[in-house]
Write a structure and sequence with these properties.
This protein has three helices and four strands, in the order βαββαβα. It has about 100 residues and is α+β, with helices and mostly antiparallel strands.
Length: about 100
């Protein structure tokens, strides 16, 4: 089973470092980086506006917790945004590729 982990980082350099490490350690088969997303959120009672980078890491079910742990330990935020999207389907060959690359 394949899932997508969505996370944000404050800089492209941090996004690239995390992406490389996830792929290198076989915690993700592929990571897409969206270089700029505008984020609006409430933090400690204030509305914040900032530019961030988004990561979309494709991984197998068995690697989700290790990937989350790796992102967390490499991330500068106190509470990083890390969300796992459950699979609802996909191209069979691509799903097999992700499972192979994360085994």
């Amino acid at each position: 089973m394949v899932s997508v982990i969505y996370a944000t980082t404050p800089t492209i350099a941090q996004a690239r470092t995390i992406a490389r490490e996830l792929v290198k350690e076989k915690l993700a088969a592929c990571v897409h980086i969206i270089p700029t997303v505008e984020s609006y959120y409430r933090w400690e009672g204030k509305i914040e506006e900032t530019d961030e980078c988004a990561l979309l890491a494709k991984t197998s079910q068995r690697k989700i917790q290790k990937a989350i742990q790796k992102i967390r330990e490499m991330h500068p935020y106190e509470i990083p945004e890390i969300i796992v999207f459950p699979p609802v389907g996909g191209l069979k060959e691509y799903l097999e590729y992700v499972n192979t690359e994360t085994s």
